[in-house]
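Record type: ASSEMBLY
Status: queued
Input:
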Amino acid sequence: MVVILVPLLFGVIEFGWLYQRWLAAESVAAHAARYAGELGGDDPALRVYIARELGAVGIDPARVTIEVVPARVGWREPIRVSVRSQERVDLPFLFSAPIAITATAVARGELAR
Amino acid sequence: MRSDGGSAAVTVIVLLPLLLVVTTGVLQLGALRVLASRVATAADLATLAAVDDQDEAELVRSGGFRLAPDATAVARRFFALNLATLADELATSPDAAAADADVAAFPNVPALDPLTGWRYERPTVRIAAAVPVRTPAFGTLLLPRTTVVNVRAASAAR
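Status: finished
Output:
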């Protein structure tokens, strides 16, 4: 009985927690994309901003991979920021597995060079 | 003293299908909530991209904001680009979803949006879209495998 109910309970809790972090990463990616558009591409200031925002929503920046494409964006061109975080789901008696959550947003380059 | 462990086990076994159905539904609803948020973010970013680009000649001439002539096309393009990042979750192509979206520009203000009833005090671009997304776990519960996510987003020049 315990081996049925406990995994079910933990499944709801663990996935709820995972979804919360996914939404948080999504929000960070959207704001980061807009900031990247303002900066004109990848920039140390962008990395600092993302790390700070991730920390604020409880995601360890050290476990996150950030991708900015293109690294230098032209005016009015699209720029994509991806935040890939390694998370973990632990269900007692069933499995324990790493899960990668990816949040991506596309904004527009605003810097006229 | 008699133990009731056996009857509890029978109860759990009898209720197990119900528990699994509820758990599956809860997990799919959670995933759908995330997906709906991602579609809404896509619409937000698209309208922001459209209004970020001002008609510069008008800005220099009068100091006022005026939407660029291609504002709706830009909104549609960036909506498709953002939807493309979740293409695997969509039940249609990102381009088709963006093409079906109702994208409207309100260059003359104040304006009343006939679709949403929203009132705009600044030049605004609005997207209203119905995006079908995959909900496979609902399918296992004999519910529709596709759920339509309705989003509305508007951004104003400032």
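Annotation: The first strand of chain A starts at residue 64 and ends at 69.
Annotation: Chain A has a mean pLDDT of 92.
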